[in-house]
Amino acid sequence: QELLQMQAAEVMSQARQALQETAEALGERRAWLPPWTSESQVLQAALVQIATPEMAEKGMHQGKGQETHVGHWLEELTGGSDGSQGRLKVFRNLNVGHKKGVPQGIKAEVDALIVEQGPEPVLRAIVECKWGLSIYGDLQKMDLLLKFLEEESDSGIAHFLDSKSELLVKLTKDVEVKYFLGMLPEGEEGGELERLLRPSVLRQEKCRMLQGAFAANVAAACTMELVEQPDEQCPIVELVLPEEQVALAQERVNLFLQDLEERMEQGRLSIYVRMA
After folding, report:
1. CA–CA gap between residue 213 and residue 15 (Å, rounded)
2. Longest dimension (CA), the chain
3. From CA 150, how far away is CA 152, in angstroms rounded?
4. pLDDT tens digits, residue range 193-235?
5. Is the pLDDT reported for residue 60 higher than 70?
6. What gap in Å lies between CA 24 and CA 99, rounded to an integer?
7. Which residues make beta-bridge pairs with 89?
8. From residue 114, how far is each of 2, 32, 128, 176, 177 by CA, in Å?
9. How far is 174 from 75, CA to CA, in rounded Å?
10. What distance in Å separates the CA atoms of residue 33 and residue 19, rounded to the nearest whole number?
11. Whole-angstrom Cα distance, residue 269 to residue 176?
């Protein structure tokens, strides 16, 4: 967060100048924004509220509390404080090991693995812990990780690393993914899948649609309007996307939800929410 604040301060004057030029060009309420505004990290930052140090400290405290809570949950799941019972054992905080490295966009670390012990240990489940609700994008990265492990593992054996050793586990087609969330969406009650995913879906799809808006065939159909803000705050550019682009985003979300529901019915995905 401190790095993001520092970077934002460095480009503030450039941003103000670019927005001023945009305002002057908005004769017909249409204009091109400078190229750097279409970069993924810029759009992501624009959709994230930069927290104060106090909020960051609170978030860190909540995250540690959630890790402790998940630790107790794992102990109950496996039946012992040593993380093992019978043929199941839990391994925590692991990185994905691969000699060529993990490609960008793929989940490179996991909070825990549940492994069936034996002469040839078998991976039964991947456990992910989230204090917040950033599950939509994380699920996509998890899918890419499972595909990567299946395609790149030697003879069906996946490699994971902790700070001291290497863990080799056999892959199967029925590896379950378990998500443990620390909260429900603000103002929402119940655990329906749509409500649970809505905050992270909106944030990620907004960013994706913003990036798509800079394509030549889409930009011509977009309408932009500059909204002045009080107290010398940075002006806001409102962008209205074509209906077909919004429909495509809705179709992506619908297919994603349908796939999730099928996986949950098949027992390949479980989502747990901390209620108290």
Report:
1. 19
2. 73
3. 6
4. 777 777 778 878 887 787 777 665 666 667 767 677 776 666 6
5. no
6. 53
7. 84, 115
8. 35, 51, 11, 9, 10
9. 22
10. 8
11. 6
Cα 181 versus chain centre, distance:
13
Please give the Cα distance from 109 to 21 (Å, whole number): 43
83/76 Cα distance (integer angstroms): 9
How many CB atoms sit inside 10 A of residue 161's CB?
14
Are 5 and 48 in contact by the 8 Å Cβ rule? The answer is: no
Supply the DSSP string of 140-162, one letter for each residue. HHHHHHHHHHHHHSBTTEEEEE-
Check: CB of residue 195 under 8 Å from CB of residue 188: yes
Residue 137 contacts residue 44 (beta carbons within 8 Å): no
74-101 per-position pLDDT tens digit: 767 666 545 455 578 888 888 888 777 7
Which of 160, 132, 135 shows the shortest CA–CA distance to 60? Answer: 132
Residue 5 structure tokens: 């604040």
Query: Closest Cα to residue 174, out of 150, 154, 191?
Result: 150
- Residues composing the chain: 276
Instruction: Please measure the distance between the N-terminal and C-terminal CA atoms of the chain and give it in whole angstroms.
Output: 28
Mean pLDDT check: name the lowest of 46-50, 162-166, 228-232.
Answer: 46-50
How many angstroms separate the Cα of 34 from the Cα of each of 15, 31, 50, 91, 232? 9, 10, 23, 47, 21
Reference 15, options 34, 39, 41, 29; nearest CA is 34
Residue with tokens 């799809």: 205
* SS3 at position 24: helix
Residue 65 token pair? 């509390």
- The CB density around residue 156, as the number of other CB atoms within 10 Å, is 12
pTM (predicted TM-score):
0.68
Specify the 3-state DSSP secondary structure of 163: coil
